[in-house]
């Protein structure tokens, strides 16, 4: 994090900004600014050397008005109660802007997984799954991967849940390996929506994506897939970074070979096609047509935003711009495609996975990608319609206006329970 902005406060200020354009009572808005419940738990597992270690873990169920809570579980030293609350709120408005029948949730464990063996991580994940068991289920709360978790962890959670419940219920979790009930196209989905949204934005702004220059901050699953797909669309990826530093070549480089280099050496730094080494911050402030922040929250604060030179930003990460950065970028006419739309491909294909699990019928990758494209294009069009209708300066506010209205409608239509 480049500054200590509290992500939960960022979420609340984003909701307040949008509320100014909505005819919804303050009492309802107040409800939509807070999670319904948060589990905080301590997991104690045995290390390989026989010692015990305790880990703090959270699951926030933010809102279930539109369907089961939905959202990932991250493993990171920076996980905190407020971070998980914020991320669960962003999930609520993400599922709403793409209009899939799910609510919002998020979980996390405070850990640096690099410091632990696979068997330690398995014990820890299964221990978390046991704690989560009473609150999850395919109709209740459906976790998924997030930062530093993937198919392996999802398979362990599914197995723990199904063993304890003495059932088969693959839809209790998404992001599984294909042989364990996962969906084709799920791994690529976050990067895919990031570039589909960018393509729509370029089209809307009458800008040419062919030959456009792109910088990608964060080269994990979302970042490198976005780089690969935007390159296939004819854009030129000129810079990429990860936690150890960045690479730059003004003529572009092969994003897949850069990823292979990262797999081999642990970092993009040192990749042979790079002409210059950059810092993470340099990558964020390059003069490019499109910037894709694909790491963690608060990557761009107000100070850094003053130096941002990109024309369009497509947020693959959750919460990469602070609200103060948003204000600066608004003044500079940077078109920011908000995270809740740009990275919604992950949860959208999770939704397809859940549907396939319930139908016990698998879709082809082609069908997954086609249906994803329709959903992202429709969501972008809904955003633009509201953006123009209210003459908004910030596409993020437009996305929240659409999303909050949908959640509030579901809440009000349900009536009150005495
Ligand atoms: N962790 C992803 C996100 O932040 C995906 C969540 C999901 O698939 O439920 O959107």
From TrEMBL:
MF-aspect GO terms: glutamate dehydrogenase (NAD+) activity; nucleotide binding
Positions of NAD(+) binding: 190, 221
Active site: 106
Chain segments annotated as coiled-coil in the UniProt record: none
PROSITE patterns recorded: GLFV_DEHYDROGENASE
Record GO biological process: L-glutamate catabolic process
Residue ranges constituting the Glutamate/phenylalanine/leucine/valine/L-tryptophan dehydrogenase C-terminal domain according to the UniProt record: 183-415
Keyword Oxidoreductase in record: yes
Alphabetic keyword roster: NAD, Nucleotide-binding, Oxidoreductase
Nucleotide-binding keyword on record: yes
Site entry (Important for catalysis), positions: 146
Gene3D superfamilies for this protein: Leucine Dehydrogenase, chain A, domain 1, NAD(P)-binding Rossmann-like Domain
Residues reported in the UniProt entry to bind substrate: 70, 94, 350
PANTHER family: GLUTAMATE DEHYDROGENASE, GLUTAMATE DEHYDROGENASE 1, MITOCHONDRIAL
Subunit field text: Homohexamer.
Family: Belongs to the Glu/Leu/Phe/Val dehydrogenases family.
The protein's name in its UniProt record: Glutamate dehydrogenase
Organism: Natrinema salaciae
